């Protein structure tokens, strides 16, 4: 029983990394369907937050940091800036996940929305302090709003197709080991 749990845990970690790499791949394709000055949702961050809230053991800190660092390098953002912010907020969500299990989806969505807004503001401030070109406010706002709006779809995808749901009290303790 413990061996199948461990295999399932590592399989879901691989699925998480594969999904993030797939999102990066499709973001790099030269499709340009969106109008200029419009940024689509950050699906990687939405996926990390959804999984961190529902199954914290599936997204260990090293996987979050590594995935976001690769995304920072691929999308030519300052290396580690977005990775650090996402890691901090995801770990905060993991801590709160157990106590907010029965709070409902609206509380989770509000928490994710606040995290996305704070991350966007901190990113802009950091870019300005580092004297790097900052994103236009319309672009930044479009990315934050679309990520907030797509978050329920990411949760539905994770729950419906991948079976990522809130763990019960026994499951959370059993699956919460660090490997």
TrEMBL record:
Keyword set, alphabetical order: Membrane, Transmembrane, Transmembrane helix
UniProt KW Transmembrane helix keyword: yes
Superkingdom per UniProt: Bacteria
Membrane-crossing residue ranges in chain numbering: 7-27, 109-134, 140-164
Stated name of the protein: Rod shape-determining protein MreD
